[in-house]
Amino acid sequence: MDETERKKPLPVGHSFFDRVVEDGFYYVDKTLFIKDLLDKNAGVTLCTRPRRFGKTLNQTMLKCFFEDNAPLPVPGGGARKDTRALFNGLKIGVAGERYLEHQGKYPVIFLSFKEGKYGSFDESYEGLRDCIAKEFRRHGYVAEKITDKYDRELFDKLSAPTGAIGDYSRSLKFLSECLENYHGKKAIILIDEYDVPLENAWSRGFYDEMINFIRPLLSSALKDNPHLQFAVITGCLRVSKESIFTGLNNLVVNTVLSNDYSGYFGFTQGEVDAMLDYYGFDGKRQIVRDWYNGYRFGNTEVYNPWSCLNVVSSWNTYINDYPRPYWINTSSNDIIHDMLDNMGADAKAGLETLMTGGTISVAVNEYVTYGDIYTSADNLWSFLLFTGYLKMAGEARQSEGRGLTVDLSVSNIELKYVYKNQIREWFNARVREKNLDALFSAVISGDVEMFQRELSSLLAENISFMDSSESFYHGVMLGVLARIDGYRLESEPESGDGRCDLALRGTNGKDGKVIIFEFKIAAKETGLQAVCEKALKQIEAKKYAAKWESHGYKNIVKYGIGFYKKRCRVMKGEKETVSNFV
Predict the structure, then answer these.
(1) Which tens digits make up the pLDDT trace of 435-486?
(2) Domain CATH code at residue 74
(3) How far apart are CA 151 and CA 157, in angstroms?
(4) What is the Cβ-side half-sphere exposure of residue 409, based on CA atoms within 13 angstroms?
(5) Among residues 100, 454, 518, 562, which one has the fewest Cβ atoms lying within 10 Å of its Cβ?
(6) Is residue 165 included in any domain, yes or no?
(7) Are residues 398 and 500 both part of a single domain?
(8) Distance of alpha carbon 14 from alpha carbon 20, whole angstroms
(9) What is the pLDDT of residues 296-343, one digit of tens each?
């Protein structure tokens, strides 16, 4: 067995702390998060970070550290899992005795609201209800000390689960009371992904119903609850106090703009370097940096942890494997598609700037809710910042008349990939809805002026942002030309000494027409004609028509098309009149 085979496996797909440590996975030590929580001594801490940035791993770490695992002196109680050994050798172990004295001392309520994501309110509510009921059953031992008949009946109903919706709205406060009565210690409440049901409800049309259930559930548990030691809540968004955390004065909010806890979600540069060194991939640091770095939480620059784990895991199998957009593939990324459908002129102009590598200045709304996303461009950009689709470039600042203002950019190759893909898919969907008969007629008849005019109009109308790569325009033209009836479209068919970009072949045999396309990008608008000429020369030099000529096709049309942002030029070769129309 070589050295690589003896390395610890990477915890791809594992987000429970005890499983990661017990099974010997590679663990990036975030246990000083415990120290900072105890030092700050906040009543309720809300940490908002993008998905797959370690929220669940940290929440389960807190559960394993704080939860009282002493044997239960009740009938059927028996021994419970002792998790203290999980922290041997980790940073919290040398942080000081005053932190370790809190280890294993509190009853803990742990809930993941991921269970509340279904197609209707009733289904989503049932998912959350069942999640709460399961936690009641996990603490079922406390029922032995419930002497009040009504409380015991309520506990049994909530455990079943057969309680009414109003019972579950008050259930967490009731469970914390039962736990304190049993343990003689106030309870810690940990809620992971608290806003998942809200995001789902917003997208499916029952947002108000879900708000009306979540609000009393959290308010009763977290506001003026005498049985609460402290609480930690995680999610993607800081949903406004008015809608969720009404009157919750003991709430400390930590967003991507905050310096507190900034290094505990995501991987820091030092942590990435240590991981690459451990697996022997130190020579790949720049690749990882270009693809997955660039997030900024407070003053700390961090990497996407999910993508880093996945790419290193892939290199352990095949060292020359190419990096992939792992993080964006964990979600549908519908928000980008919805943004393209709903954004106004200001937002479109901002996206054009971002896609060309620039930055935009945004007045951040830290209370943006799902229902507010499209009410202003600033709300849209704020949402994309908090959910990980944009990065903060530089320091946040107070601007007169605008409040807290930040500069935003697209942080890395992975995120640029999702924008480009979604823009292309959005454009193709728009193309499918548009009447393009005039454009198609021009392509087939060889009317260069009309072809160029219709294509320019299509680009100007539907795309207010452009990529500088030929592959982007290749995708655009692929989506457009695929709709021409009576022709078969081929992408990069092999012919002669290479491959042209696209080829259309009539479906009525050798009597039909073959149309060859070659695309080029101009560095500036005045260079459009030159790149068109270059494209036509390439068609001839590499004999792209040879494949069809050898099969007896006589009617072959060749187009060279140059692109510069939203402008294009079309030129036609092979004895046809070449238009200089722009």
Answers:
(1) 899 999 999 999 999 999 999 988 886 655 555 567 778 888 988 899 899 9
(2) 3.40.50
(3) 10
(4) 14
(5) 100
(6) yes
(7) no
(8) 7
(9) 999 899 999 999 999 999 999 999 999 999 987 766 666 777 777 777
